[in-house]
């Protein structure tokens, strides 16, 4: 079911400072910030050789990241995202096995313009898992 | 400085159950458990297409993972590991910039038989970062 690790998302209190640290101190390839008002986050991608880090900070009211930062004021790893080739089939398999898909259980369009769902952390050892449907022909070689 | 994401480490209370979930439900390539008494952990590798997940559970007394699981009984993401090509040079750069290397500040041999250090999570947005020295010729293509 799961393919590549698409990204690790890290919630940060100060996006500019976090981005500068990854660029200037860790020497990584850091993209410009991107607002995603529909998801309540501003995101900076850090492109590594084999995957991405997403630095997230809250945007607007009711950001899903705001509560996490209240509980973890220094920031922390928020979720990991695995790629799947057929998200509808993945959801069926998971729900049949008793795993819980968050929200209404249906995929929505994520920050990359592709269908995503989040799985309940209690079903996966305290890890918030995002599944993103990535068609094989869209995957980098 | 940083190259590939070598792995994401997830601390789990029940290693067999976590490994079975990754193998049978998420359909991943899951290796056999490996005891590392010198690091106080038993580890199961989950090999993804582009990186690895390490499922960790405490082994013996004074495991570095035991306290994490006390605070997070369901488990959770424990650390992420970035590869570097010259760990001594990376440590110098980080320390010169004011970042803190845990322990005595010197690399020790990690679970993969390669030199590693851990960086203070407070210096990196609440994220425990491991750096592992991987010579380019040892990296998978």
Automatic annotation (TrEMBL), chains A, B:
<dbReference type="InterPro" id="IPR051785">
    <property type="entry name" value="MMCE/EMCE_epimerase"/>
</dbReference>
<dbReference type="InterPro" id="IPR017515">
    <property type="entry name" value="MeMalonyl-CoA_epimerase"/>
</dbReference>
<keyword id="KW-0413">Isomerase</keyword>
<keyword id="KW-0479">Metal-binding</keyword>
<keyword id="KW-0170">Cobalt</keyword>
<dbReference type="Pfam" id="PF13669">
    <property type="entry name" value="Glyoxalase_4"/>
</dbReference>
<protein>
    <recommendedName>
        <fullName>methylmalonyl-CoA epimerase</fullName>
        <ecNumber>5.1.99.1</ecNumber>
    </recommendedName>
</protein>
<dbReference type="GO" id="GO:0046872">
    <property type="term" value="F:metal ion binding"/>
</dbReference>
<dbReference type="GO" id="GO:0046491">
    <property type="term" value="P:L-methylmalonyl-CoA metabolic process"/>
</dbReference>
<comment type="similarity">
    <text>Belongs to the methylmalonyl-CoA epimerase family.</text>
</comment>
<dbReference type="InterPro" id="IPR037523">
    <property type="entry name" value="VOC_core"/>
</dbReference>
<dbReference type="GO" id="GO:0004493">
    <property type="term" value="F:methylmalonyl-CoA epimerase activity"/>
</dbReference>
<dbReference type="InterPro" id="IPR029068">
    <property type="entry name" value="Glyas_Bleomycin-R_OHBP_Dase"/>
</dbReference>
<feature type="domain" description="VOC">
    <location>
        <begin position="4"/>
        <end position="134"/>
    </location>
</feature>
């Amino acid at each position: 079911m799961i393919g590549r690790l698409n990204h690790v998302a890290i919630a940060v209190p100060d996006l500019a400072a976090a981005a500068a640290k990854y660029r200037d101190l860790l020497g990584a390839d850091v993209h410009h910030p991107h607002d995603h008002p529909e998801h309540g986050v501003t995101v900076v991608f850090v492109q590594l050789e084999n995957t991405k880090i997403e630095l997230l900070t809250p945007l607007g009211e009711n950001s899903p990241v705001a509560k996490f930062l209240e509980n973890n004021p220094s920031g922390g790893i928020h979720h990991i995202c695995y790629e799947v080739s057929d998200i509808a089939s993945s959801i069926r398999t998971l729900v049949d096995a008793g795993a819980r898909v968050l929200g209404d259980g249906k995929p929505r369009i994520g920050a990359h313009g592709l269908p995503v769902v989040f799985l309940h952390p209690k079903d996966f050892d305290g890890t918030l898992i995002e599944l993103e449907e990535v068609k094989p022909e869209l995957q980098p070689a």
